[in-house]
Amino acid sequence: MTLIAIIGGTGLTRLPDLTIVRRERVATPYGDPSSELVFGQFHQQDLVFLARHGNPHAIPPHKINFRANIWALKEAGVGSILAVAAVGGIRADMVPGKIAVPHQIIDYTYGRPHTFFETDLELVTHVDFTHPYSARLRKKVLTAAHVAGISVVDDGVYGCTQGPRLETAAEISRMERDGCDLVGMTGMPEAALAREIGIDYACCAVIANWAAGKTAAEITMTEIEANLAAGMADLTAVLRHFVQA
Ligand code: HPA
């Protein structure tokens, strides 16, 4: 059994039902992680929780120290990461309030430190990233949702934008033509760094809004927060069955 980490995104700065055992500030060669690592028991299972945007939620997506976060989790002995992320829905079945388990990624970010293989190399290293998410963990999340009786969208191409602004309608149309089903700001380089360091990684995306231009209405933080709050009960049920499986 490998230690599981949950990385909490917008709407999940702390994990309800986590009995905290200890908190640890981990120093890494890349600087400080977004927050301390919170070690505890979640429904009788050991896990580590990390708040991706800090606690309180104050680090914008393009300023997250993804390398420090993933390095710190590796140091802590984590073998599996379930990343929770708020996203916008592009495909018609990506309805706000629902959860999706994406299977692919397209990266539109720029200027983010995105690799561990940069300096002090003996050899140039190119990791395989054909299937960015762990098949084992995706299956485990989908089974957990099924057992919990929660209907989730079982695939999706996650397009990762730079943020922190939301997209234009034309950007979303382009992403849709590219094949994106969901849009978020934090999936990359997080997933790639996990692959580079050898941690299995999957994502539970909570759909917070229809992506730009998909409805006539302006996207507001109030709407995003309300949909995330509505999705949280389902999310915590999925997480519970996930850690217990
Ligand atoms: N775009 C990008 N990231 C997001 C969105 C969105 O519409 N909603 C929540 N995170």
TrEMBL record:
Q: What is its EC number?
A: 2.4.2.44
GO CC term, one of those recorded: cytosol
Site location (Important for substrate specificity): 167, 221
Catalysis: reaction(s) = S-methyl-5'-thioinosine + phosphate = 5-(methylsulfanyl)-alpha-D-ribose 1-phosphate + hypoxanthine
Q: Which residues form the Nucleoside phosphorylase domain?
A: 4-243
Family, per the entry?
Belongs to the PNP/MTAP phosphorylase family. MTAP subfamily.
Could you identify this protein by its name?
Probable S-methyl-5'-thioinosine phosphorylase
What organism, scientifically named, is this protein from?
A: Methylocaldum marinum
